[in-house]
Amino acid sequence: MQVQFASEIHHQPLVELLLALHRYYNEKSSVSEDLARAYLVDTLLAPDSPLQRVIASRGGGIVLGFAAISFTYSLVDLAPDRRQQCWLKELYVRRRADQCGPRLTLGGHLA
User: Fold this and answer.
1) What percent of the chain has pLDDT over 70?
2) What are the phi and psi torsion angles at 87 (to 5°)?
3) Is the Cα torsion angle 53, 59, 65, 71 positive or negative in sign?
4) What is the CATH number for 38?
5) Domain count for the chain
């Protein structure tokens, strides 16, 4: 399993994951793939997005899950090597892939 920052080659699998996540929480939603792609590209992956997207994938470029993280600075810890903090915003793994360990892999990579 490979963990890396999302890039342009991951757009289609990320669109599929976003739709799956959205439908999980909004069963009656009819959001289109085009709308999900536009949201991904224009908002989540935009250069000014506060989120960083990390994916877990396996051979053949199959994206198993993703995490959205952001970085902020501590008000408490002033040491240069300790002042930046990582916040986990979202973590989603494909249902059929969850038994393969991507959630643990993504979580461990971010820790």
Assistant:
1) 86
2) -115, 130
3) negative
4) 3.40.630.30
5) 1
